[in-house]
Amino acid sequence: MKTTALAVCALVACVAAAPQFPQQQQQYQQQYQQQARRQQTYSSSSSTPAVNIALTRSSPEQPIVILKQVQDFALPGTYSYSYETENAIQASESGELRNAGTPEEANAVQGSYSWADADGTVYTVNYVADENGFQAQGAHLPVPPPVPEEIQRAIDYARSQPGFREDDDGQYRKEE
């Protein structure tokens, strides 16, 4: 009786693990192979870019193929990853844990991501995220205007006053 029950459980597990949608899987595999052939064609031609990608899909249900993906996890808190998709999205990031086990423990991350819009313009954002916050840079990102002269004079005056502390974050703290 135990052997029969064990055999039935094993059979149920095999059936559950079997591919549920073989036609869809075959379709995805064919799309991936077609994309790989297109990539070989594009990269072997000198007049076209190394990656020439259709930026829109005829059907939103079609999956976007991941062309490249790398992940590396080393020491606790240290990692890196990158990926590239067929619709011109690329991302990479690496991070580490700084000052582990101390009150100043913080993650430090740097990376970038890019994408192409419908007319083929590529946008790239490079960033750092650490104890100083998230800082992004990109040619398409807005840049704040310069500080007006009157405001700069007021800041300089405040800094010159006795009791001014550069590290004061403006938060109220009851003095003891």
From TrEMBL:
InterPro entries reported for this sequence: CHIT_BIND_RR_consensus (IPR031311), Cuticle_Struct_Prot (IPR050468), Insect_cuticle (IPR000618)
Signal peptide: 1-17
Keyword Signal part of the UniProt annotation: yes
Taxonomic superkingdom: Eukaryota
Pfam name, any one: Chitin_bind_4
One GO cellular component term: chitin-based extracellular matrix
PROSITE patterns noted in UniProt: CHIT_BIND_RR_1, CHIT_BIND_RR_2
Record keyword RNA-binding present: no
This protein's UniProt keywords: Cuticle, Signal
GO MF entry, a single one: structural constituent of chitin-based larval cuticle
Protein name, entry field: Cuticle protein CP14.6-like
